[in-house]
Design a protein that fits this description.
Strand 4 and strand 5 (49-52) form a beta hairpin. The chain is mostly beta strands. The protein is built from no helices and 5 strands. It binds zinc ion. Zinc ion binds next to loops.
């Protein structure tokens, strides 16, 4: 009964990550997201989710 198809969370080994879309259906200008807080960061363009790997 897992009906939610939310975008998967991507774990990153660095304090920041660059995103330019998922490479399939979406693309956008390259942006850098700050992951240093340890919280989940959502890309403002494509809604991909990133979190620093603990
Ligand atoms: Zn993005």
């Amino acid at each position: 009964m897992n009906t939610n198809f939310q975008i998967e969370l991507k774990y990153i080994d660095n304090d920041s990550v660059s995103c330019s879309g998922d490479g399939w259906t979406q693309s956008h200008p390259l942006v850098y997201l700050d992951l240093s807080s340890g919280e989940v960061v959502v890309c403002p363009y494509c809604s991909l989710k990133f979190q620093k790997r603990k």
